Amino acid sequence: MPKLNSEVCNSLRDHPDDENNPQLNGYFAIKQMKKTEVMRNKQTEHVRNESLIHYQTDHPFLTTLFYRFQDDRHLNLVMEYVQCGTVYNLIQKNGRLPNEVARFYAAQIVMAVQYLHGEHMIFRDLNPSNILLDRRLYIKLTDFGLSKVLNLDDPTARTWTLCGEPEYLAPEIIKSAGHAKEVDWWALGIIIHEMLAGYPPWYDKDAFVIYKKVLQEKTDEKTFFPRHMDDFAKELLKKLLTKEKKNRIGSSKAGAEDIKKHKWYRGLNWAALYNKNLEFPSTEPLYFTPVASGPVDTANASVQDYPVSSDEENTPQLDPERDATTFGGWDTITKVSDLAHRSGKSNH
After folding, report:
1. Which of 125, 134, 143, 184 is catalytic?
2. Which fold has domain 87-274?
3. What pTM did the predictor assign?
């Protein structure tokens, strides 16, 4: 969790009224990747595309990628530091989440995914571990490693890669039948179930057992959902966990608007939520609520301090010519003017 220089910090301020904001105080999170490992795993284009997709996004419920840089051994992505852990940790420490809290988070996911689809991006890795919590307990989706740009104006457009965590994969991914934006709405259904029940609807140590359950088990059985679950939530889950993707809610031309109109969201002020003007739901207090005491607090953050070790210093270096050929241009979005432009957009 390094501290950056004042010139960069001044160009990245996004909430000047919050004296404890990590970015205002010059603190950021860095994702660091070894060049030799990237090349060994044939991920050069993958990591480049990940950073470009992430850099182009601009939404209050997505993490901000500010810039990237490299040294002799590493590729680095500088992102905003989000302090209060993940939705996964919140579920684990509370057993399950109250209906109003789950609705609060699911609505933010809907808006984030709606934005991505509008930008012709499929996230493809929605799961509670990729949903960070900020100081006010609003969400930030992170990790664009599996995201895909696809022409979503073309209803026949498909991608075919088997990717994502087994518990959250839609049937069409498992069957290698080609997939598009509908997979994100399936994953949303899994996450809502996990928030409300404390566990995903299908889980096992063996991924192939999960796949078999997803393809064979029905979601319309009375025993599929826990008895305590809200009836409107159950109704929405049945529509999200529809195995025929063309019938899945969110798959129509109206997209996310169909989900936002569902009865589970009745009375929700979407504009206030988008602008982060709603207080965290407190009708059913949580057993555990993460807090950040200051901009450097890492007690609940989903990051690791990364001191340089002697082994790290001895990481093999690439041949300079090969390094320049493979990773040339990696630093092209590090200009302060670009940072200022990027930071200005993030307030909208």
Report:
1. 125
2. Transferase(Phosphotransferase); domain 1 (1.10.510)
3. 0.88
